[in-house]
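Pilot study result, target chain (365 residues):
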Amino acid sequence: MTESVSAMTPIPRARVQAMKEYYPPLGNRETLRLDFNENTVACSPKVREVLGCISAGSLTRYPERAPVEAIVAAHLGLAPSQVALTNGVDEAIHVLFEAFLDEGDELLLPVPTYTMYEIYASATDARAVAVQAADDLQFPFERLLAAISPRTKIIAIANPNSPSGSAATRAQLVEIAARAPHAVLLVDEAYFHFHGETVVDLIGVVPNLMMARTFSKAYGLAGLRLGLLAGPVELMRWVKRVLSPYSVNSLALACLPPAMEDAAYLDWYVGEVLAARAEFEAALDKAGVRRWPSRANFVLIEIGARHKEFTRLMSAAGVLVRDRSSDPGCDGCVRITVGTREQMRQAAVALNKTLAALNIKGVSQ
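Predicted structure:
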């Protein structure tokens, strides 16, 4: 006798059903990639040397991240117990939220900001509270302070911020941490190298401060998915309880030390981007395109109602850029990653041709 099979299928938690879906536009990315804020050239040559020496036998063993975490901790001037390597900064955010956000808690977010904060928070029973920046998209310091409540459990600040490129000051971050001692202040320094200011020296000094970094940007290791979370030992012990012991793979662990050791390559790339950013911003000003001051490796510009056509035509011209019009307060805006000076000169030519094709005279003209 054949047992009957129910037509019903398993149903996920209500929170998962309500989550926003995220689909990164990753197709056809063989042209000039100015859409994801990646390193636009390559990783350090020392990383490529290490990749060529990895044996097939080494891949049969589970990865051990503790020795590399010790190297990273020393590089940052921290203790190994204050650092955790993660599968990209996304995992750092995810495990932090899983460890600390509970029913009735609030995640405080200055917006616009990195999309994944809200998405990962929506998988918990906490509520995301958005603090909208003004039209200048500068860090909404006073509004954020006013939004802190007894229910605030995490305050997540991308510094510098994406997509605006703005940054909070060190004094502002310290004040926020002091005003919300019952909450974790996460400072996400994904674009630290292009900004030059950090709170890493305050880890363990400010008891509720945690810092995230990524190796996907300046270091050029986006394909290996490497990030880190740093914080006081008392907070890190709970994060590490949630963190998977094998989420960072062996190839990534092998490549990270030589990437950090090659200061000459890192300095060259960051210097090239900063020079290119200044040159490209001048080209935008000459074209009459409104832009926001940036402390990162990208620039946010205002195109207006024809932002979709602009993005499409730039792609047709061989330059990928990112439409950010759906971000809060960014209607009609497009974000352009800054690469080398040569790449940005190519981007400027494509931009001017696209503006002419669309008969866009420039917002500020």
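One observation from the pilot: The first helix runs from residue 14 to 18. A full batch analysis is planned for the follow-on phase.
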